[in-house]
């Protein structure tokens, strides 16, 4: 009788990228760089579990919501209508333990920012004609709904609304909020070529997103000529912008795809789904998302290689010195002398730290002012185009879109402030032959984030007060109309009929005009808030540069000068070392050099594999 040994579950073997990363970590630890490597490892850990995003845009009545339902495999999930249906952008998020299917979330400007509701109640908050949305004291900014796993995988799908069906503000907000890679899915249909507004929208937005896919829908309705429309669209895109000449263009039927998801008969479901071509669209969307998912690993490997370059050069230089060759000695001497000179003049006016900060402050403040003016002019022009005033639906739609635009503009401007300030720090450090620390740049980013998170309220919908002059005008016009009627109808009531008709018309018109005036006031308030937020960010960020960063620079400069002296002393010691001391030191140095070179080579090979460039030459 034999007894079987208990089976033990074997851990999955780490992949080649993990092994290469571990080699970099071992080399870093051997060269006293464990803390820096830990920062790179944390970056990788922070990206785990993030979900990519597909942002869906399209003009009205192009089949956008139907296509979203088909991609999700969930009939009726996104509201469908022949006219503008949704007043908020809705994110369809893969379900999780914290956000289970059947739940939805509304985001507000005031606390609590996120408010959970049953998914069955979501329609009344996102439909533009819903009384709940129109009558709310504070309408939500956007919404999210947890959905079960879809054929697209664990990807967030964002359905963007907008006046006319296309809104750069909604699209750019969704892209900016995406935690990971994002793809812009433009939806048009097979009725004809892509429209000029849609084309220009696509050209502009494509500069701010990694990947674009074009879906040509309703091939079930235009079976005879959708192929010609698809080819014509390809030529139009290539002629308008060569960057768009090679984007994936997929002909698809959202209606067939949605019907397939609801079809109980497996054979018919498979046939419908195959005819819908939704699977080809999903494949086109997955390709750029899969490529982008490799970016954190690629960045970590590249940063690991860059981190080991300096100790490798130092060890190689010391090995050369032990062999009697010291080519780097003069260069190190020049570095030491330059940094010691900077130390002597750092507190002197010759080192124009404050002058450079002031120049950047003027530059950024001017940019903020220009951005606020352009923002205010754009939205005033949008509102003033409603010559006869604004209805409730128009008011809610324009206010929500403006709130999205504020977030986008603040985000862009803050990135510009951070990048310009980081560039200033880089220039100031470069004068000393150094690079600013990552922690210093992180502090700049933190101050900018603090400014954007400062006290602010949502866009308030002010009370629309009716202008009494318009009411009086209506009464007078009604009286005149009544007199005119009296010429044909002999009745004492004709003046009152005229007054009633024109009075009612005047009330409606007065309310619409008052609503428009209220929105214009909101535009003014939003413009002021935008300018104040950005100016607050400039003060906070440049405060870091002019005070904290200057102290850190002083410390780094002293340490750098000390390091240069230490390395020079080590080289001098290596030149004077005895034969036995040289052999001992070489016995310590050579294994370290070999370890670093092997780790860097493995990481480089892995980068080539991940980028499908195995035939590319080594850098």
Q: How would you characterize the overall build of this protein?
A:
Pfam families: Dynamin_N. The chain crosses the membrane at residues 484-510. This is Dynamin N-terminal domain-containing protein. One of its GO terms (cellular component) is cytoplasm. Residues 54-216 form the Dynamin N-terminal domain. The protein is of the alpha/beta class. The chain has three domains: 16-48 and 294-324 and 601-619, no CATH class; 53-293, P-loop containing nucleotide triphosphate hydrolases (Rossmann fold); 328-464 and 506-576. The protein contains 19 helices and nine strands. It has helices spanning 16-30, 34-47, 64-72, 123-126, 131-135, 168-177, 196-205, 226-240, 254-262, 266-276, 278-293, 295-322, 329-345, 353-384, 392-430, 438-452, 468-486, 494-576, 579-610, and strands spanning 53-58, 90-94, 103-107, 114-118, 142-147, 156-159, 182-189, 211-217, 249-251. It has a nine-stranded mixed sheet with strand order 4-3-5-2-6-1-7-8-9, sandwiched between helices. Strand 7 (182-189), helix 7 and strand 8 form a beta-alpha-beta unit. Helix 1 (16-30) runs antiparallel to helix 2 (34-47) and helix 16 runs antiparallel to helix 18. The longest helix is centred in the last third of the chain and has 83 residues, at 494-576. The chain is globular and about 100 Å long. The two termini are 62 Å apart. The model is unreliable at 346-350, 462-482, 496-503 and 613-619 (pLDDT under 50).
